Amino acid sequence: MDVVAGVMAGLAGGAVEIVDLTAPLSPHTPVLRLPEPFANTIPLSLEKVSDFDADGPYWSWNNIHTGEHTGTHLDAPVHWASGKDGLSVDRIPPSRLTGPAIVVDCTAEAADDPDFLLGPGHLEAWTAEHGPLPQGAWLLFRTGWSARSDDPEAFANADENGPHTPGVSVAGAEWLAASPISGFGVETVGIDAGQAGGMEPAFPVHYHLLGADKYGLTQLRNLDLLPTSGAMIIVAPLPIVGGTGSPARVFALVPRA
């Protein structure tokens, strides 16, 4: 109780701040687009049920139409072939959805090269400077890409060769899969690089992390408001029974001096 009381006192007094890492979810939220012949998920749309009218004079509500992997969302292991026998989103233990937030900042590299890939060398340099990754941490890959999220074309950054967005190399994905993290979060539309479809294996972050019972988190914002370490992340997906993922609200508890 002393620990909980300390957090509550910190929130009330401003020593702890809640930072929302979630992108707003609307019909304009960017959605991953796969090339033909693959099928695509749908963006968000709302269907009015009633709005203080004859169908419901005292209440307003909507039906939601969207995919599991729309906007800021969680990827569960069953989303990928390598994790198909793993956990669906409703079965992920809540203890795995909270943990230390670790920020690896590669904004300069991504600004110079939109196809920048995070590799073992970058991760080992980070741990050499800041210490080993904590058990159950969420590694958040800061690239500055969220600044583009209100412009779908700039966010996708696509040409005749497909999208060009930063991500993780095959070796980097293997490194992360073998690490003690619970999950990996990005600012881009998906947890893999824009050109990851041409890697071996294709989409290596999906393949290696989801196959290792680790989770993905996409379209994050406000990573610039987090310290390199010392914050705590809270990931709150919908517990969709059998779900391969879910839109999520994501917060960080950040200590302030």
Automatic annotation (TrEMBL):
Q: Which SUPFAM superfamilies match?
A: Putative cyclase
Q: What is the native source organism of this protein? A: Actinocorallia longicatena
**What is this protein identified as?**
Cyclase family protein
